[in-house]
Structure formats: C-alpha cells, structure tokens
C-alpha cells in the first residue's frame, strides 16, 4: 500500500520483509544522491539510484495491482506465482540458485502495483536481471502449480484477513469510497475469487498484459544506470509491446457512504475522507499529508502521547489504537482514520475524533501546525529514503507519467503548505460525504450519523 | 510409473520402426484392453505417490472419463463380456493422457535429488561469479 503517514504500519512491514532492513553502514557517506536517474532500454522504463554499499535491490514494478484486475484474485495470483516454474528453470532451481548467491526474493502487491524484486550482492546483478526477465516473460502458468502451491497460500492469507477487523474495515472503507477500481480490496474478501474466477489461463493473459512494455518499469537501488540499462537491454528481449488487452484505469471517482460488518473478534472503525494523489499524479495536495500528521494518533517519539490532535482527543482510551494515514495513488488518495480496540472505547472516542477534525476546519494552533508540518516532511523523506517504498512509488510514477518519485521535490511541496490550505482541506473533506466502515460488535459501534459525519 | 522403454531407440531407426509399428499395433489389439474400452495409460498401476499426484493433476474431464472407463471395464469383466464393437477404444482414442504428467513429476523429483546432492565449488580467485554446479 502506498501509505506514507504511518510509522506503525511501516514498522510492521519492516519486521515482515527482510529487504527493508537495508540501512546505511558506517563506512558510507551520510548524504548520497537520492535522486533517481531515469532511462530506457529496449523500450522499458528504468530508474536507478547508485547508492553506495555492497547490496543492491532490483524490482519490476508493474501497474497490475488489484485496481486493474478484470476479475478478482488475479493480482494476488500474479504476485504469488512469481518466481515459480519458468520455461527455463523450475521453481526449485530458482530457489536453490538464489539461496546459493545469498539473496532475498520479494513479491507483494498493492492496490495499484505488483512488485517483483530481489535483494542481492552487487556482483550478481546479471543473474538477477536475467531471473526477473524470466519471471516476466517466460513463466509457465500451469493449472497444477496454481492448485498445489498458489491457491493454498491464498486460502491461508484469506483466513488471516478474516481474523483482522482493522484490515477488513480499511478495505471496506476503500470499497465505499471508490467502489470499483481503487475500491477493490487488496485481499479477496471471499474465496469465490479463486473458486470461480482465477485459473491458469486468465492468469497467463493477465500476466502478459501486466508485463507488457508500457505497463512496467524496472527500478534499482545500488546499481549504476549504465550497468542496469546494459543488462536490461541484453536480457529483456522478448517483452511484448502489444497484448490482447490493456490494463487501463478509469479516472477514480469518490463516492462515500457507510458499511457495517459484524465480526466476532475485535472491533474497528475506519473513517475515510478524500485525500491527495501521488506527486506524480494530477491531484497532488501536500496539505493532506500535513493534515494527516496534525490529526495523527500515534506518537513518533517515546514517553509522550505526542502533539497530535487525535492522541489528545483519545487520552481517556489509551488502549485503543488510533492512527491517521494519508494514502496516495496515481490519480486519487484517501485520508483514513482507523480506530481499533474494544467496542466501548471506540464508541466513546469516535465523536471526539470527529470533533477534532471539525476543530481543524475552524482554526489550527500555530505550534501544532509547525510540528505537524515538520513531521509530515520527516515522514515523507524517511519513507522516500527507504528503498522499498521509494521503489514502488518510482516505478508507478514512471509507468503512469514517465516521472520518477523524487523525494526532494516532495519535501519542497510540503514546505509550501500554509495553515489556510490545511483548514481548507479539512473543510472540504467534511463538506463532502465521508466513508465510514464499522467492523465488529455492531450493537456498540456508532453509526456515522451519530458521531456527526455526513454519509 | 513410467517404465524403461525402447521407443526412442526404435523411432530413430526407420527400418526398425517399419518393422515394429505393425507389430506393436497387433500387440496392443491382442492385449484386449481396448475391447473393454480402456486406454493403455489406464493400465498404469496407481498405487504409488507419483501416479496418485499425476491423477490429481488431470483436468476435470479427463479425471471423470478415466473413472468412467474403469467402472465400465470392471462391469464388463464381472459379466465376462466385451463391449459392443462400436464402443471399443480406437487407435486414435488410445493416446497417452497420464504418462506425460508422470514423466513431469519424475523429472521434478529427480531434479530435487540432483540439487540435494549438489557439490558446491568455491569461487575461483579472480572470477566474479560463484555458482554451484550440479553433479
């Protein structure tokens, strides 16, 4: 997910994904170039950042996330089928070879992108460019691999999803906000997706569209542009430029509304408001990031609830998790306030949260605003500096508009945000319809109307 | 499970092939399973892991047809009868639907064994790559 205002989420992900543990060593300069160099080889868009250090990261970022899938389950299937049998190598061989080279293979998907990547020693670049080329162009989509290896994983993931009320609530809020397209849940909400829609044949079709020239970009860290374009030029020779169908999105439209889902374990309430697109998209509003930092909920420092309005508003319910995120996509975004905890805590706090939001539209405390701006900028830069997030944003930016995600520029645009703009953003968000999703004990959890939101 | 076969040896030699093909046709007919509506792949013993997995990998129609053929043949066998002639398996109908899958699974397994018994060579001084090699 393209979230940037969430330390908590980031930390969870960092624990789950080893390739995020990339940190600067002591011997390296404190300020390298964080600008991506953009190029092209064989008609494929490339971006690379020559960071010093022994480890390089390489990824294919294909705009084939859940937003683009014609039927449910394809994006997830594509992600989980990566690095499996190709016409040259078997799954096992790919695993053993990459183990021998000492590397990490990573795949994940978000609403917009499927990212297939690897982390490895810089010397091994040719091997991994070849491997990614094989994954993109030579993967054999076989029914038995799908049935024996991919679908059981999807089943387990599905069970995990069902046991997580917050994830359900956030996905439901997206569904309410954007309906189809961006609103499609990142994890299939029922196993109907692979019982009815997912099969090897349409997965192969989807893959050929996902890995067509205009639809993906290759992003690298710790690799020089010349090396990268040389090897990509050599290995990515069979990439089709025409496919049977194209993954073309429609401009996302915000709807809004309310959804309530009963759930036996755990409670979550998500309030979502229209947000900002990514800087490479056309509807970029840096003030939304500042608004998210101002509302906050989770503190980025120790031993203090922090300055943020929501952590102050919910001081009576310290056991409830609350966080605000501004999540950005290529042509739209969503500002989400997620509350997870006991039903009574949520019932008590939800009206206060809405009050805090309304108070921003009235006026903002000078000091809190300055802190929020600093935090928004910090999070932006920190997020962009992390290899993984920057890679996905850069790749998506290249595919959609030919622009890489340059964090310096993003930071500058956050500097330009004024109090007036944030107030305006809050006012506009409150005037429109909100998207409210409640998952859990529906007797206790409030309706949007009750906490003072329009739906 | 697949069995050792001379087929490749014979196919490579046209003179031998021209001898053997009629002989094999005669033999398959004489074996009698076609008169019970079976295919040669139906005769592969299925009581082992590999064939069980291969049967699971059949697509729905093939799997259904396989069971149907077997039940029909079993019934014929009980009644000490042959099928009426139009229902006999034809030469075209007697294709290999299971053996290719079995071979694929055996290939996967032998690859795993090869990789398991792999000897890793230490990288040579001066060479950039350090791949393992298969025995």
From TrEMBL, chain A:
Keyword Cell inner membrane attributed: no
One cellular-component annotation, GO: mitochondrial inner membrane
GO MF entries: metal ion binding
Membrane protein topology class: Peripheral membrane protein
Record's keyword terms, sorted: Electron transport, Membrane, Mitochondrion, Mitochondrion inner membrane, Respiratory chain, Transit peptide, Transport
Span of domain Peptidase M16 N-terminal: 49-185
Subcellular location: Mitochondrion inner membrane
Start and end residues of each Peptidase M16 C-terminal domain: 198-374
Family: Belongs to the peptidase M16 family. UQCRC2/QCR2 subfamily.
Protein name (Swiss-Prot/TrEMBL): Cytochrome b-c1 complex subunit 2, mitochondrial
Gene that produces this protein: QCR2
TrEMBL record, chain B:
UniProtKB keywords: Electron transport, Membrane, Mitochondrion, Mitochondrion inner membrane, Respiratory chain, Transport
GO CC term, one of those recorded: mitochondrial inner membrane
Pfam families: UCR_14kD
Region (Disordered): 109-135
Entry superkingdom: Eukaryota
Entry's family note: Belongs to the UQCRB/QCR7 family.
Main location: mitochondrion
Function, in words: Component of the ubiquinol-cytochrome c oxidoreductase, a multisubunit transmembrane complex that is part of the mitochondrial electron transport chain which drives oxidative phosphorylation.
Any one Gene Ontology BP term: mitochondrial electron transport, ubiquinol to cytochrome c
Statement: the UniProt record of this protein carries the keyword Membrane: yes
Protein name according to UniProt: Cytochrome b-c1 complex subunit 7
Localization per Swiss-Prot or TrEMBL: Mitochondrion inner membrane
Membrane topology: Peripheral membrane protein
Xref: PANTHER family: CYTOCHROME B-C1 COMPLEX SUBUNIT 7, UBIQUINOL-CYTOCHROME C REDUCTASE COMPLEX 14 KD PROTEIN
């Amino acid at each position: 997910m393209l979230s940037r205002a969430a330390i908590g989420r980031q930390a969870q992900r960092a624990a789950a994904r080893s390739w995020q543990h990339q940190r600067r060593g002591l011997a390296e300069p404190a300020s390298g170039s964080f600008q991506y160099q953009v190029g092209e080889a064989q008609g494929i868009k490339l971006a690379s950042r020559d960071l010093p250090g022994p480890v390089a990261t390489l990824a294919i970022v294909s705009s084939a996330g859940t937003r683009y899938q014609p039927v449910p389950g394809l994006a997830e299937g594509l992600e989980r089928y990566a690095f499996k049998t190709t016409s040259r190598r078997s799954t096992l061989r790919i695993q053993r070879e990459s183990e021998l080279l000492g590397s990490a293979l990573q795949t994940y998907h978000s609403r917009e992108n499927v990212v297939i990547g690897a982390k490895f020693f810089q010397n091994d670049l040719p091997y991994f460019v070849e491997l990614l080329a094989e994954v993109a162009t030579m993967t054999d989509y076989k029914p038995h691999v799908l049935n024996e290896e991919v679908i059981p994983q999807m089943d387990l993931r599905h069970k995990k999803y069902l046991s997580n009320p917050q994830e359900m609530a956030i996905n439901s809020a997206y569904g309410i906000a954007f309906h189809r397209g961006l609103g499609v849940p990142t994890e299939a909400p029922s196993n109907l997706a692979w019982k009815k829609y997912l099969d090897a044949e349409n997965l192969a079709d989807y893959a050929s569209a996902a890995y067509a020239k205009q639809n993906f970009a290759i992003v690298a860290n710790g690799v020089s542009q010349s090396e990268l374009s040389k090897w990509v030029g050599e290995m990515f020779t069979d990439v089709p430029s025409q496919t049977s169908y194209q993954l073309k999105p429609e401009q996302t439209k915000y709807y809004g509304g309310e959804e309530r889902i009963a759930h036996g374990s755990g409670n979550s309430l998500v309030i979502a408001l229209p947000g900002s697109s990514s800087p490479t998209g056309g509807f970029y509003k840096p003030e939304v990031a500042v608004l998210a930092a101002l509302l906050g909920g989770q503190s980025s420092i120790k031993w203090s609830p922090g300055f943020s309005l929501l952590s102050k508003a919910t001081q009576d319910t310290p056991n409830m998790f609350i966080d605000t995120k501004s999540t950005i996509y290529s042509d739209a975004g969503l500002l989400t306030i997620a509350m997870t905890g006991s039903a009574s805590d949520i019932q008590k706090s939800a009206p206060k949260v809405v009050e805090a939001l309304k108070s921003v539209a009235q006026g903002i405390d000078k000091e809190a605003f300055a802190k929020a701006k600093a935090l928004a900028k910090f999070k932006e830069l920190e997020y962009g500096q992390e290899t993984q997030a920057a890679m996905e944003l850069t790749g998506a930016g290249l595919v959609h508009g030919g622009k890489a995600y340059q964090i310096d520029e993003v930071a500058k645009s956050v500097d330009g945000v004024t109090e007036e703009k944030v107030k305006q953003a809050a006012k506009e968000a409150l005037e429109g319809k909100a998207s409210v999703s409640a998952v859990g004990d529906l007797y206790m959890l409030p309706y949007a109307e009750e906490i003072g939101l329009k739906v | 499970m697949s069995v050792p076969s001379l087929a490749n040896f014979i196919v490579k030699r046209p003179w031998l092939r021209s001898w053997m093909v009629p002989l094999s046709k005669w033999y398959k007919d004489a074996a009698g399973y076609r008169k019970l509506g079976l295919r040669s792949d139906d005769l592969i013993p299925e009581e082992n892991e590999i064939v069980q997995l291969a049967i699971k990998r059949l697509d729905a129609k093939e799997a259904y047809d396989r069971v149907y053929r077997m039940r029909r043949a079993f019934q014929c066998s009980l009644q000490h009868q042959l099928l009426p002639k139009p229902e006999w398996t034809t030469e075209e109908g007697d294709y290999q639907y299971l053996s290719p899958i079995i071979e694929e699974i055996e290939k996967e397994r032998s690859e795993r064994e090869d990789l398991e018994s792999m000897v890793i060579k230490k990288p040579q001084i001066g060479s950039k790559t350090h791949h393992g090699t298969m025995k």
